[in-house]
Amino acid sequence: MRLEEKLEQLLAPTIESMGFELWGIEYIPAGKHSTLRIYIEKEGGVNVDDCSDVSRQVSAIMDVEDPISSAYNLEVSSPGMDRQLFKPEQFTRYKGEQVQIRTSIAVLGRKRFKGPMLTVTEDGIEVEVDAELYEIPFDLIEKANLVAVF
């Protein structure tokens, strides 16, 4: 099990009991400058006080459970307009929207995709790029974000 999955199991009950959805978790290892970024969401949006409240609770849990043995900075944030998509159900929520995808290995010669997400299945997504359709399995997606359109 990946660290982010373990952290989600550890933190989700508390975050959800506070009235928030745990949108996703990113751990970026960088020695003494590692970052644990937790994204929260709620109906009507997230404000700075919400982030502060969740940060205090998460920090207390992390101090007791100590799932990350090295030093790190904790950040609690809203997913924002260009939100990262972590779970298949999040992809389903934004079907038809513009996405930017980076894969771990090439899919039909590409690792980067930007275009409308036309289809979401239980195994992956279909993105249109330059009038070509690409089927991208979830297990190959390294990072996926919505593209904010103004």
Write the layout of secondary structure elements.
Elements: H1 3-17, E1 21-28, E2 34-41, H2 48-65, E3 72-77, H3 88-93, E4 98-107, E5 110-120, E6 124-129, E7 132-137, E8 141-146
Parallel strand pairs: 2-3
Antiparallel strand pairs: 1-2, 4-5, 4-8, 5-6, 6-7
Helix pairs in contact: 1-2
Defining traits:
8 strands; 41% strand; single chain; 3 helices; globular; alpha+beta; 5-stranded antiparallel beta sheet; 150 residues; 26% helix; 3-stranded mixed beta sheet
Tell me what you see in this structure.
By secondary structure, the chain is an alpha+beta fold. Helices cover about 25% and strands about 40% of the residues. The strands form 2 sheets. The chain has a 5-stranded antiparallel β-sheet. Strands 1-2-3 form a 3-stranded mixed β-sheet. β5 and β6 form a beta hairpin. The longest helix is centred in the middle third of the chain and has 18 residues. The termini are far apart.
